[in-house]
Structure to design on (101 residues):
């Protein structure tokens, strides 16, 4: 294989690892129910915090709605992480390997 191509691939690999590490160190926020529930995740999809507005629960009947709202907030945040990860990593994978084709 061409030595220049090997150097390009090695650099691309280093850049990908760095980008992945930066994503994992990032913080993402999700919310649902008009921000009744907010969650905070790291880029590697580990929940760091959850905040529930005290007005979210006025009676025991509100618990089921609150549970659904928490699930929606968590899913919102995970979707943001996946979208950002795809966006960042596509610079390395979208369109094949530069210089090979």
């Amino acid at each position: 294989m061409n030595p220049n191509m090997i150097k390009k691939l090695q650099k691309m690999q280093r850049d990908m690892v760095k980008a992945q590490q930066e994503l994992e160190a990032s913080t993402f926020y999700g919310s649902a129910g008009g921000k009744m529930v907010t969650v905070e995740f790291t880029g590697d999809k580990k929940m760091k915090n959850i905040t529930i507005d005290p007005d979210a629960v006025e009676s025991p009947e509100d618990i089921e709605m609150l549970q659904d709202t928490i699930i929606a907030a968590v899913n919102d945040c995970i979707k943001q992480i996946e979208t950002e990860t795809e966006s960042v990593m596509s610079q390395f994978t979208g369109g094949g390997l530069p210089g090979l084709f």
Q: What stands out?
A: The mean pLDDT is 86. The chain is about 55% helix and 20% strand. Helices lie at 3-25, 62-93. The first strand starts at residue 27 and ends at 32.
